[in-house]
Amino acid sequence: MGPDSxxxxxxxxxxxxxxxxxxxxxxxxxxxxxxxHPTCVIDEVARYYREDHANVHRGIHALSTxxxxxxxxxxxxxxxxxxxxxxxxxxxxxxxxxxxxxxxxSWGTANLGPGDIILITEMEHHANLIPWQIAARRTGASxxxxxxxxxxxxxxxxxxxxxxQTDPIRLMAFxxxxxxxxxxxxxxxxxxxxxxxxxxxxxxxxxSAGHAPINVQELDCDFLVFSGHKCCGPTGIGVLYGNPTxxxxxxxxxxxxxxxxRVTYESADWKPGPHRFEAGTPHIAGAVGLSVxxxxxxxxxxAAIRANDHHLGRLAYEAxxxxxxxxxxxxxxxxAGLVSFQLGNIHAHDLVAYADQFxxxxxxxxxxxQPLMRKLGLQATARASFYFYNTESEIDRLxxxxxxxxxxxxx
Amino acid sequence: xxxxxxxxxxxxxxxxxxxxxxxxxxxxxxxxxxxxxxxDEVVVFVNRSPHGTIEHIRFTGQACxxxxxxxxxxxxxxxxxxxxxxxxxxxxxxxxxxQDAAPAAGxxxxxxxxxxxxxxxxxxxxxxxxxxxxxxxxxxxx
Lengths: 411, 142
Prior knowledge:
The structure holds 2 protein chains of 2 kinds.
Chain A: H1 5-10, E1 20-21, E2 24-25, E3 27-28, H2 39-52, H3 62-82, E4 90-93, H4 96-111, E5 117-121, H5 130-139, E6 142-146, E7 148-149, E8 154-155, H6 158-166, E9 169-175, H7 187-196, E10 200-204, H8 216-219, E11 223-227, E12 238-242, H9 244-249, E13 260-263, E14 268-270, H10 284-300, H11 302-321, E15 326-328, E16 338-343, H12 348-356, E17 360-361, E18 363-365, H13 370-375, E19 381-385, H14 392-409
Parallel strand pairs in A: 3-17, 5-6, 5-9, 9-10, 10-11
Antiparallel strand pairs in A: 1-2, 4-12, 7-8, 11-12, 13-14, 15-16, 16-19, 18-19
Helix pairs in contact in A: 2-10, 3-10, 4-5, 11-14
Chain B: H1 2-6, H2 9-16, E1 29-35, E2 40-48, E3 54-62, H3 65-78, H4 83-98, H5 123-138
Antiparallel strand pairs in B: 1-2, 2-3
Helix pairs in contact in B: 2-3, 3-5, 4-5
């Protein structure tokens, strides 16, 4: 793959990138927070609202039939994207956070109790940490952590095997790609290890679903969650994949319209399948937009996107390493397309505000990883995160501006 | 550039060499400011004289340049003031940062933080130390 081959082909599909910010061409490096939308997604959402919108699953009329078909086609699309055997195992959510909350609430309440252990890692996003704190508090289970060592963010995964042999670990929930470290966890091996001991697994794929090929049958995970807006789709729509056997036994998460089969004044029965977990009118346009986004990504090719990500991540790591007094988090090799760092004594918010004056959009903060940041002795870092529309020259530009920031603030 | 309005020389100076930095032992009272969006923390310590004025003030914390400078400048400005005067200055300062035509009278060096007006997302940084001050003053037993 030549340099910038994906950006050369696809960058023009993203109209938002073609603008100036503070007088400079926008350099959008905040993709781990949210990616941008290609014209085809923007157009399809607009077309849906102009031509096909009605409520789903309850109307007999033409528009409702069309909207229902689009919504259910999107479910099938998401299933294909994840390599799921059936669309029945795909639940639409508001995003990764809601997906995890759904599992923690529905599966957790019924399957966790005193003495049980919920195991997660120290690098989890707050979205894959706080729901388990609450589930543990509610059920009497204990929340425990696999430790992260050093700035590289290494986890000794052999600990999992040992702990599974001796401890009643009911659930292993972990991130595929860390949003603050950029490391890639060995999902398939972790799930296989857990499977041998009958431990249920949940994969937080927020940072990976739009960035690498994912096949839930090959990974053999029980739950996997991601957000549409981190893979070219709209905000407010996300996907929860659930192992069909587990989903069948799970109680609904919210209650109301759309999810019931028969209701009396005294009681109600739930619909089978994913609809049981989708109370109320769903984000139909979001699902429709996400479906087109997934088509778009697969046209490019998930393996090509992953290779491009890794290329940019490695390039950024090397280029930033040349700066004085820089502390980069995460591994040197096997790195995803994001780099989070502390530059001398410059506070991340000052650095990000400075870069913004030159049109560079980065994230500065704790990245919803407060406990990890505290453990590493950091308050906040700046983070540059890439997608296939970013170019090598944008990384050069980032380095230039960081060098200027060092002059400006001193390190 | 607008960035130079935000990071004026005096701001960069106070952020690198904060005045009145450190702790005060009890019976000084303390107040804390915490910014959940970046994890910044500032703790302000205050001793009041028998006349009710702020006799000693110091602060600790790790924060961005805007927050460090604002808190540092604040400590230099409120020393010797009564509680009412200090809280009045806090109001004047916040009005100055948030209202278009608010008077800057009495703000002195604090006017250097006027650049924050163009960066509303940094308002919390500029006021964190002041909220900590208010907490420390409230914790003074009369």
